[in-house]
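Technical note accompanying the year-one report. For the benefit of new consortium partners, we illustrate the data format agreed upon in the data management plan: each record pairs a sequence with a structure-token string. No post-processing was applied to the example shown here.
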Amino acid sequence: MKPALRRITVNPEYSFSVRKDTGAQVYSMWHHHPEIELFLIRGGKGVQIVGDKTSTITETCHMIITGPFLPHTIVYNNGSPGGEVEAIVVHFNPAMFGHGFLDMPEMKEIKELLGKTTYGLEIKGATLELMERQLFELYEADYATRLLLLLRALHAIARGKEYEVIASTGFAGDFSNSDNTRINKIYQYTFDNFQRGITIEDVASQLHLSKESFCRYFKSKTGKTYIRFLMEVRIGHACKLLMENEMNVAEVCFACGYNNASNFHHQFKTIKGKTPFQYQRDYLNTVGVSADFPD
């Protein structure tokens, strides 16, 4: 799907971009760019789409790296009223290092890491904890020091090898300019309407396509059916509501666009491998909240 091509503005005083986003809610449109992106979010929960992979952000700190022109979006917000999400976003083009720099023996591990960003990487474990400190330190540093800290962070990630590839190797990443507008429209329509009943005919009409043509188009660009994508978005939102623990499971079911509890439970277990009750109980037990749940 070709998302919007985002232009990253770099101040002439430095060679790459570092910014800090804060707020109770932050929304990123489906987009891509020629730069490699390091994205670390603290305090947010929501839905992440990278290439053809849709997943739920549930942890206190979360970090991904996306390679050049890899489509991605994150729709996230804080789970507690009055709280703030903080995100550090770094964009850089490997060409900034100059000819031959990444070919030096000392840079072998970093060069291999950058090559793996083609399908996106999610950072895990102790490396994630380290990045939470280092990327905020990078943001606070002066321009000259930032380059050294970027290399330090990339070296730590490359050495730690605590990451998982996100998108599938079969992901179709070749998009035309018309795909850009089309996919943006589909994604925006889905996020705006997933809490009510959506039919394939509804979505197809947004692109003035027949149901059959739309299904072929969406599958060819994402590697999955639209029904699967819609299910992932709804279940991702359900996970957020279950973690907030302000609704019972029946209320969560209807708040996510389902009008059939049995269907909701079936799709939730298909995506998460456990029932909504089990998911909520496991999460609350993990964060130390005591609650009674039916078996």
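Partners are asked to follow this layout when depositing records. The longest strand covers residues 85-92.
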